[in-house]
Amino acid sequence: MKNYSVAPNQDASAWIVKLEDIAPADEFEAKDDAIAKAEEMAKENSPSKLSILDKEHNVIREERF
């Protein structure tokens, strides 16, 4: 199972989509755009898990595809 995450960068100026805590796959200005891209990537690579993180990097939502 692949693990995707969406989290803000250090100064919260952008949202980053990552796969398996490796280098960022994509960076977005809007959180919703980052989530949409991560959901698309997770669905294409099912089974997978998507974690949405807040500014303190706590998981606020998880989805499985």
TrEMBL record:
It holds the Pfam family DUF2188. This is DUF2188 domain-containing protein. It comes from Virgibacillus subterraneus.
